[in-house]
Design goal:
By secondary structure, the protein is an alpha/beta fold. It is built from 12 helices and 8 strands. Strand 5, helix 7 and strand 6 form a beta-alpha-beta unit. Bound molecules: thiamine diphosphate, iron/sulfur cluster (SF4) and magnesium ion.
């Protein structure tokens, strides 16, 4: 049974200068220069603060953050198997609840946050994430999405953008497009299918500023099981100069290929709304990355057409691909 604990009410951070100065993910890691997933780690730890325990599934954010005898984590952190992110969060939250019930540790709100990569969280570990979102525990699952199995040298996952070159999908003279799947639409799938989960969001650690930190805080304030999917440019896997990570994130969002929104108690709010701000051509985003260097105009037009359909024809623009076509059985 859920235990009533004192609430931590996190404030919305309005300006960068109001963000906490304390760091809970600091030096001692070996992620690549310009790694946006590392920024996701830094920002969720900053936003949630010291009374937080993180569990991390295998992937870059495990391996590069635990080089021999070093770690950037100031908060307690536990590794869990690839695909076990959801169950690790449930186990951690259940363990804390049992210890508090037995009086072995003080009753207080301790944030439990799991981070899993796109392969670990959205492909291999999807069932565990789904199970976690059906519990009554306070836990937050962050799906950090660098669009490949980056740690094992950039293999395609269910979240890799259509057309991208990866080590599993090298373009050749017979077939130019080897990654011919459209990106799995994870956040809406989880939002629609889990009534116990009150808060689902997509986020960026760089654009707009503070987007991800505030969404982390909103998830923790909402309580219960919650989920955030982040969009993380990866200089190594996407093949661009590390100095352009932020720009790539911005281009991805402004082109509409990665929609930014939050869903709280079933209500959708766009946190970057292309209907009001317009969309730049998706070409501007694609041509800056080596992983798309083999695409020809026809491919780029195809991707643009798919993105246009997302925003112009989907029932919930950029979110839900179902189109209204309700036919009553007796009509
Ligand atoms: C059960 C299992 N299968 C395969 C592996 C090998 N492996 C380690 S990390 C990794 C890639 C994980 O990709 P993702 O979850 O997207 O995280 P990223 O490396 O991109 O940060 C793989 C396949 C493993 N550790 N465990
Ligand atoms: S390969 Fe990509 S995700 Fe992994 S550490 Fe480097 S930039 Fe980050
Ligand atoms: Mg990945």
């Amino acid at each position: 049974m859920a235990m009533q604990l004192p609430v931590i009410d996190y404030e919305h951070i309005k300006k960068a200068k109001d963000a906490p100065l304390e760091e809970f993910y600091t030096s001692g890691h070996r992620t690549c220069q310009g790694c946006e997933s590392a920024l996701v780690m830094r920002d969720f730890a900053k936003a949630s603060g010291p009374r937080t325990i993180a569990t991390g599934a295998t992937g870059c954010m495990y391996v590069a953050n635990t080089s021999y005898q070093t770690t950037p984590w100031i908060i307690p952190w536990m590794h869990t198997q690839l695909g076990a992110g959801g169950s690790s969060a449930v186990g951690m939250a259940a363990g804390l609840r049992a210890l508090m019930r037995k009086g072995k540790i003080p009753k207080e709100k301790i944030n439990v946050i799991n981070f899993s990569g796109d392969l670990g969280g959205a492909d291999m570990g999807l069932s565990g994430v789904s199970g976690a979102l059906q519990t009554d525990y306070d836990l937050l699952i962050i799906l950090y999405d660098n669009e490949s199995a980056a740690n094992t040298d950039i293999q395609a996952t269910g979240l890799t953008t259509y057309g991208a070159q990866t080590t599993f999908t090298p373009p050749g003279s017979v077939r130019r497009i080897m990654q011919a799947r459209w990106k799995k639409n994870v956040a809406p799938m989880l939002a629609v299918g889990h009534p116990t989960c009150r808060y689902v969001a997509t986020a960026s650690a760089t654009f707009p500023a503070l987007d991800f930190m505030n969404k982390t805080r909103k998830a923790l304030n909402t309580g219960g099981p919650t989920f955030i999917h982040t969009f993380d440019p990866c200089p190594k896997g996407w093949d661009f100069h590390p100095g352009y990570s932020r720009e790539l994130g911005e281009l991805g969002i402004r082109s509409g290929i990665f929609p930014l929104y939050e869903i709280l108690d079933g209500k959708v709010k766009y946190t970057y709304d292309p209907h009001k701000k317009g969309r730049i051509p998706v070409r501007d985003y694609l041509v800056k990355q080596g992983r798309f260097a083999h695409l020809i105009d026809e491919d780029i037009d195809y991707i643009q057409g798919m993105v246009d359909t997302m925003w112009e024809e989907w029932e919930l623009p950029g979110i839900a691909p179902i189109k209204s076509g309700l036919e009553m059985a007796n009509a």
